[in-house]
Structure formats: C-alpha cells, structure tokens
Design a protein that fits this description.
It is a single chain. The chain is α+β, with helices and mostly antiparallel strands and 264 residues long. The protein has a domain of 134 residues: ATP-grasp fold, B domain (D-amino Acid Aminotransferase, Chain A, domain 1). Helices cover 34% and strands 31% of the residues. The chain is built from seven helices and 14 strands. Helix 1 packs parallel to helix 6.
Length: 264
C-alpha cells in the first residue's frame, strides 16, 4: 500500500496505478455521500459490499457481451480494471418515476414509464451536476455523435440485464446511474462501461412492499441500517458473503490505507 501511486481519489473510491500502464486498481471506501457531498458519513463494511455486488454485476455483463472495464476482483475491497479515459457526464436510465424526475415534473413517484428513459448529467459538483442534452454533449465536444449512439445502446443493454437479475431477486429496478470511458488502442478507441454498479448507483425497491433497498435510505434520514440493507441485496442476488472475521480484517486494512493517504 505504501508504494502505490494514487491516480485520483473520489467520494467513495480511490484509483491507484495498476501493475501495468493500461490497468488501474479500484479501491472501494466505506464513505457514503449525498447532495453533492453536503452529507457525508463512513459506514463500516459498505465498500466491501459495493465491491462484491459490482463485481458480480460487471462479470455478468461481460458474459452477456457488454464490454466493461473490470478485469477481476482482487480482494474484498479492490478490483483490477482497465485504464480508461472517463467521459465527463453521467448517464441515468429510468424505468419508474422517482427522485429528481418526480420533483422536476411533478409526477407521482412510483408511476411506471412506458419505456426506459435516458438522461445525461454533467459531472461537475460546482455546477450541481446539471442535466444536459445530446446537443449540449455534441456542441461542447464531450462526446461524438457515434459515441452518444454507442452509450445509448449500451445503457439499454445494461438496463435489460439488470431488470432481469433484480427481478429474480424480488427487487424492482427503478433507475440507475452509469459512467462510460474511452479505452484507447493507439489512435482508435472503444466506449466501454466503467465505474461501478451497486446500491449506491441504483434505486432499488422491494418487489412486493416498495421498501427502499438503496442509497435513498441515507438520503432520507431513515433509521434503517444501510449496510444491513446492502447485505440483504447481495444475499438476494446469490452473492456469497465473507465471514465476520474477514470483514473485520478488511475494515482494519481500510483504516490503515486512510492513514497512509493522510500522511501523504
């Protein structure tokens, strides 16, 4: 850990240089944030669960033919991923009215949409991550017309896949956020899925009760145990979880890494 080179550190992850120039190591922290980092806590074990859930989903997407940056999960907190140049906007896919969409248009939360809706948001906390359109993206040079088309196609493929696996777990996929990156090969590149897919980036409701199983628990000041809820999601998906001793070891390692980064 002491010799690792930090590429960047975000709200919930640290990206280190990988064993080769074309790889990174993605480390999942226990931090959770909301409202552009105005609310922030550290919940022990959350990063472990997000790592395992995202690994499960990304591996499944690879098998389904959706290219993404995951190479393999290294341990309970880390993934080896392909080095990509992140495209500077988030892609949100909505299946049901909820969250900001409900507030923006005054539509009842929980109403199903007749077809999946794709929205784009510029990744810029200082501007409040404003919603943008295809034209904004093209005119500002954030992505080409072909890249936008590729992103839309991949986003809908991911949606189809996630709807299926969450339905099998008794969970409704309300909406979710994706990030994409450019994977360069000399002068050419491909657009592939990057970042993570977890209850931090998805809005998930119980199929029968509409109980929230995602980060909205943290946003809403609920008294529910968010880590226990994420653990429930993982178990429903059939993900094998570690024993308590392994979990404690991984939490201790996270604390050590945090201290090393503070000293740097």
């Amino acid at each position: 850990m002491l010799n690792r080179h930090v590429i960047c550190q975000g709200k919930t992850k640290i990206i280190y240089q990988g064993p080769s120039q074309d790889t990174y190591i993605q480390y999942f922290k226990d931090d959770i944030t909301a409202f552009n980092n105005k609310k922030h806590e550290v919940l022990e074990g959350k990063g472990i669960l997000n790592n395992m859930i995202s690994d499960f989903i990304m591996t499944g997407l690879s098998l389904a033919g959706v290219r993404n940056h995951l190479v393999k999960r290294l341990n309970m907190r880390e993934q080896l991923v392909q080095a990509v140049s992140i495209i500077p906007f988030e892609v949100v896919v909505r299946n049901t009215v909820a969250g900001s969409f409900s507030k923006r248009y005054g539509i009842q939360e929980g109403d199903p949409l007749s077809q999946p809706l794709i929205e784009y948001f510029l990744k810029d906390d200082s501007l409040g991550d404003p919603m943008i359109t295809d034209d904004h993206i093209s005119l500002c040079g954030w992505a080409s017309a072909q890249e936008i088309e590729d992103i839309q196609y991949l986003a809908l493929r991911v949606n189809d896949f996630l709807l299926g696996i969450f339905y099998a777990a008794g969970i409704k996929l309300i909406d979710f956020k994706l990030e994409f990156g450019r994977l360069w090969d000399n002068e050419t590149h491909a657009v592939i899925l990057a970042d993570e897919i977890s209850p931090d980036t998805c809005r998930l409701w119980d199929m029968h009760t509409d109980r929230k199983l995602d980060k909205d628990i943290f946003r809403s000041e609920s008294n529910e145990d968010l880590v226990a809820t994420y653990r429930e999601v993982a178990k429903r998906m059939g993900i094998k979880l570690m024993d308590q001793q392994s979990c404690s070891s991984q939490i201790s390692e996270h604390r050590s890494v945090k201290l090393v980064n503070q000293e740097d």
